[in-house]
Amino acid sequence: NRLKLSFMERARFAKNKVAERIFQIMATKNTTLCVAADLTKTTDILNLAEEVGPHICLFKTHIDIVEDFHPNFLKHLQDIAQTHNFILFEDKKFADIGKTVQLQYSESIYKISSWASLVTAHSLTGKGVLDAIRESEGLKERGVFLLAETSAASSLIDGNYTQATVKLALQYTDLISGIVCQSPLFVDQPGLIQLTPGVQLDSIGDTLSQQYNTPEHVVLERGADIAVVGRGITKSADPALAAQKYKELLWNAYKKRIV
Ligand code: BMP
Question: Which of ligand 1's atoms lies nearest the C-alpha of 235?
């Protein structure tokens, strides 16, 4: 049961290289926090990365919301990621046919495959998406988080879709780092990582169907390994302090879970 094992122990079960690295980062930095850097200016994103860097394992971007994108920005971001030892994660949610995904992943001004060690994908169009990501040009070590459930109220995803997504993930364990979901779907797979968004302390949701749970709840009741926090940190007066607080709450919950 993955919920009772430490990240250090789980690292050796990981078949995906990036997942193995994530386990090691979590175990050495004592953090399971992924920040969602949903900001539209490159300087704001870089400042956030510097501020929260010591407290996070993953830095999640939506690169296509950036207004003043330039390739130099990625160079800076990579430097910060290296300094603070966290992983760059582009939340692209690929959902097209394989050929289109391949172009979206490796081409365009963003060239995602050249800098993002991690990306997200929908399972909607099936294995072609994963074959495309596996076969594309780009970083040698790459990982995918497959989306099996969402934090959105009244999501159209049902139990069958969720189960089929987990099944698909298990056919691509070399490529899949983990699954994005809201409940413990794969407790018998210690090498896979559960990533859970929809985490905030001061709010239960927004006006656009987002739903929030607390750090303790997602770790102890929902099986989250990594929690994604966006506005809970980015809208805070002191993002570094907020990140530290989320990190500590999440880590304490994890320690409580594995005893
Ligand atoms: P916030 O904490 O500000 O609500 O941000 C949540 C982040 O997680 C967003 O970047 C969103 O795209 C992502 N996300 C989510 O909220 N729910 C999901 O089910 C999947 C996501 O990727």
Answer: 3
- Count CA within 13 A, CB hemisphere, residue 51: 18
Determine the Cα–Cα distance for residues 22 and 33; give it in Å rounded to an integer.
11
Are the beta carbons of 101 and 133 closer than 8 angstroms? Answer: yes
What pLDDT, on the 0 to 100 scale, is given for residue 158?
A: 97
Q: Identity (one letter) of the amino acid at 252?
A: N
Contact between 150 and 105 under an 8 Å Cβ cutoff? The reply is: no
230 is in an annotated binding site: yes
Other C-beta atoms closer than 10 Å to the C-beta of 187 total 13
d(CA 22, CA 20): 5
pLDDT confidence of residue 212: 98
226 lines ligand 1 (CB under 6 A): no
Q: Which residue(s) pair with 88 in the sheet?
A: 59
Which residues in the chain show pLDDT less than 70? Answer: none
Q: Are 112 and 88 in contact (CB under 8 A)?
A: no
Confirm or reject: Cβ of 231 under 6 Å from ligand 1: yes
Instruction: Please report the pLDDT score of residue 47 as a whole number.
Output: 98
How large is the ipTM?
0.99
Dist. CA 108–CA 82, nearest whole Å: 24
Q: Say if ligand 1 is within 6 A of residue 52 CB.
A: no
Closest residue by Cα to residue 151 from 69, 233, 208, 74: 208
Asked whether the whole model's pTM tops 0.95, one would answer: yes
Nearest CA to 131 among 167, 166, 171?
171
